[in-house]
Amino acid sequence: MEQHIHPEPKAFIWKYVFSIDHKVIAKQFLWTGLMFLALGGTLAMMIRWQWAYPKTAVPVVGALFLSHTGGAITPPTYTSIFTMHGLIMIFWAITPILIGAFGNFCIPLMIGARDMAFPKLNMYSYWMFFASSVLVILSFTSQLGAASAGWTTYPPLSTNVGAPGWGQTYMALAIFATGVSTIMGGINYIVTVIRYRAPGMTWFRLPLTIWGMWLTAILNVLFVPVLGSAALLLSLDRLAGTHFFVAGAAVGIQGGDPMLFQHLFWIFGHPEVYILILPVWGIVGDILSFFSRKPAFWYKGSVFAMIAVTVLSAVVYGHHMYQTGMAPLLGLGFEMLTLAISVPAVVLFVNWLNTIWKGSLRLEVPMLFALGMVFVFGAGGLTGLLLGTISTDIYLHDTMYVVGHFHLTMAAASFLGSFSALYFWFPKMYGKQMDQNLGKVHFWGSVVFITLVFGGQLVAGYSGQHRRLFEPYQYTYIRHLAPLNRWTSFAAFALGATQLIFVVNFIKSILMGKKAEQNPWHVSTLEWTHCASPPIYHNFDIVPTVVRGAHEYADPAVKKKFGRDYLDQVEPGLSAVDEDSSAGMPEPEAIGAE
Amino acid sequence: MTARRLLRAVTGLAMGAGALLTAPFAFAAAPQPGSGYGLPVDVSAEGHRIDWLIGVTNVLTGILFVLMLGWILYAAIGHNEKRHVAAHDHGDSRKSIFLVLGIAGSIFFVVDGNLFFNSTTDLEEVFHNFDKVEKDPATIRVEINAHQWAWDTRSAGPDGKFNTKDDIVSLNDIKIPVDTPVIFEVASTDVLHAFNLPNFRAKVDAVPGQINRFWTQGKTVGEYEIGCAQHCGTNHYKMKGVITVLSKEDYARWAKEASENSARLFDENDKDAHWGWDWKGN
Questions:
Q1: Which residue in A196, A290, B37, B106 is deepest, having the highest Cβ count within 10 Å?
Q2: Using a CB-CB distance cutoff of 8 angstroms, which residues of chain A are in contact with residue B80?
């Protein structure tokens, strides 16, 4: 369906602040997300410092924020640090960067739409997210400390029984608020993809990126409300004296049930890990094909695999709760469904490996990050098997092994996937090229240190170290893991330092990067072939008519006719050219260029 | 079962690497520091089932990991644009689809299938088989009440009933006889905790308003650590205890004495101290 063209706003406030342009909103999400990524990363460094040098003053950050203890981390501060690290990274860093920024930026451009279906709702989504961000910052200023009940926010610890003060309350409200933002965004993504695909852009011609974003949006709209309800009930327990989640001695009379929260939380929480990885799967599926100069291997198989994972993700949440006293038969059902996910996951994975096999790989920065994502996701996926199985999970549950596993899958994989996307679409977003050499250093540092950090966590957990321990060496049987933890911390500090290279590159490229061509990567999707860098306000003067899928590469006949190795999604192609005497068309560089 | 034994024998070799990493546990009174990177020493009668399944899965996933890494590196170098012209292949031929589904199916049946089959058998025959243990007259029963930040423990005295004058009560200290099944029933008064016996490959959440249970059996005399595996607040990291596996004779002697001590110190009016519950059982 063709959207009409809105007049472009001129005033600063409508153009850059309360903008309804999906491209501006994408940048707003990107910047906010990157800020929180830095904050969440700093908190991670503090955790690692505590494990490397327990109870000693943290450099720089300690002097700034922990002066009352001489810069050292205390046990209550430590619980706040890991809680806020987890929540910030998931809801305020990965979600806005991956879904908020790239979902917003890519969906209209890649499907040939002039904007989202509901541009104003899109703006509200960002500003709701902004309000939730303010609540996060407020949580840090609370007198009794920021939220401290773990990112999972399990009651009764997260009620006034275990975490009095405003810190935890602000976070419960912040989770609710960011949930509202996510739902608004999700509805927008779903409707836009259904209603505003360009003529000829059939479902099976969509780039994989769009499939990933669309399925993620569906999961968000279905399951974030469940989290919202849990956050709301928790807020009532904290503020209104209700007892939804409090039981035991803390309530004199008949109490509620703390397990209710866990069910609500994981009904959302397991889809959430796929919410954070589906867009990456899509992006990486496209980028591997683009930079291998080869069609995406069994595109439909990848699409069906992603759909299968989306469906299964809704019915496996119980594997987070094997040790809660779950009925054995129920546990068995969850185990069976959980293991079943490995079928579509392997299909997807083997499709990636087959896409790069016999390709003509251009190891440019987005491709390097995509390959890195495949590697860490593979490692993370393989270590997940032992956690999805009940008997082996008895030993590994709540150890650092779990921490290593989920960081590899949903943190490292979405981190590398996000950066793959960022380096790939940066020229389109800002009209500038990023420095490729700095990008390569950033990649190698990131992938090597990520492997060391989360590999170190896997080994520590395998050897018996629990997660969330202020000082693990209180336990005699894991005291010998102190050097391992220290080395893992060194790798983490190096990982943190590596990100400074990105910061320099990002700022430098925006301010004085080389001007980007319209299609610097020579790829086939609409945003590169039919939009300027950066695109005009309404993206497309004339909405193009699509004739093929997004991965038409390496056809020798095309090479012979056109002198290049790909066909974009719009141009007539071989048969039409045969009739057309103007064969040997140049690259469609000039269309819509500034 | 024979096929399973055979598989175990074959993978025993591969397990050697893991065994080398696991330190031999010298007999000593206090919990001993571990060494090396690997599973902590297993002192339970049935923990080897979990260790075997972890070991064999590590071998299989290790192979897949190496294949994956090799594949990526080979493609990145060997099929680089400098050396290789891309093949025009959409991967949707019947042959390609069979290849992908074949790999996915094989991994599912071998790796996941092995996990599912063995895990389910182990749970049914051993870890969840409370019937057998409850019927065993030698079985020891222990109630654990977790609270911030300690473990209250209680076993029935000679009268065999819980919450009576002769209960053996203690804090952060559990003693059990060797080669004897022990059932733990675990609850919490305040927030969630998780009662963890890493050396026994046993763990269960302590939930307020709910009684969870597991059973285990010590095979090596000595002292081992109890940990809290679930974040339970500021001092979570210090919520430790010690579980001591005694010889049967030592245990009988100790239990008699402990019960007499508890009876002597019993205070009818100290309601908080009578937190025990009637054994839940099956």
A1: A290
A2: 360-361, 363
CB within 8 Å of chain B, chain A residues 526-565: 551, 553-556, 565
CB of B133 within 8 Å of a chain A CB? The answer is no
Closest chain B residue by Cα to residue A382: B61
From the list B47, B75, B194, which residue is nearest A361 (CB)?
B75
Q: Do B231 and A150 count as a contact with CB atoms less than 8 A apart?
A: yes
SS3 state of residue B153: strand
pLDDT at position A497 is 97
Of B212, B133, B61, B145, nearest in space to A321 by CA: B212
- Compute the distance between CA of residue A180 and CA of residue A132 in angstroms, rounded to an integer: 9
Q: Which tens digits make up the pLDDT trace of A220-246?
A: 999 999 999 999 999 999 999 888 998
Q: What's the topology of domain A12-512?
A: Cytochrome C Oxidase; Chain A (1.20.210)
Lowest-pLDDT range of A361-365, A513-517, B18-22, B56-60:
B18-22
Q: Do A470 and B237 touch (CB under 8 A)?
A: yes
> Residue A466 has what DSSP assignment?
B
Residues A44-59 have pLDDT tens digits of 999 999 999 999 999 9
- Cβ-based contacts of A554 with chain B (< 8 Å): 85-89
Question: What pLDDT, on a 0 to 100 scale, did the predictor assign at position A583?
Answer: 42
Q: Which of A260, A245, A225 is CA-nearest to residue A163?
A: A245
Across the interface, do A477 and B111 touch by the CB < 8 Å criterion? no
* Measured distance between the N- and C-terminal CA atoms of chain A, rounded to whole angstroms: 26
CB nearest to B190's CB, from A250, A300, A375: A250
User: Based on the number of CB atoms within 10 Å of its own CB, is A115 exposed (0-12), middle (13-18) or buried (19 or more)?
Assistant: buried
Dist CA B233 CA B215 (whole Å): 27
| Per-residue pLDDT at B29 | 59
CA–CA gap between residue A298 and residue A302 (Å, rounded) = 6
Note the pTM of the prediction, 2 decimals: 0.92
CA angle in degrees (0–180, nearest 5) for B198-A82-A173: 125
Q: Domains in chain B and their CATH numbers?
A: 2-21+38-80+91-127 (no CATH), 139-268 (2.60.40.420)
Q: Is A332 within 8 Å of chain B by CB?
A: yes
Best probe of the A interface among B237, B244, B282, by most A CBs < 10 A, is B237
CB atoms A462 and B122 under 8 Å: no
Q: Identify which of A586, A541, A593 has the alpha carbon closest to the alpha carbon of residue A568.
A: A586
Percent of chain A with pLDDT over 90: 88
Residue B159 CB burial class (10 angstroms; 0-12, 13-18, ≥19) = exposed
Q: State CA B267 to chain mean position distance.
A: 36
Distance from C-alpha of B154 to C-alpha of B177, rounded to nearest angstrom: 15
A143-168 pLDDT, tens digit each: 889 999 999 999 999 998 889 999 99
- Each residue's pLDDT tens digit, A399-435: 999 999 999 999 999 999 999 999 999 999 999 999 9
Measure CB to CB from residue B31 to each of A324, A343, A477 and give the nearest one. Answer: A477
Residues A11-34 pLDDT 10s: 999 999 999 999 999 999 999 999
| Residue ranges for chain B with pLDDT beneath 70 | 1-29
Per-domain residue ranges of chain A: 12-512
What type of residue sits at position B92?
D
| CB-based contact B79 A469, cutoff 8 Å | no
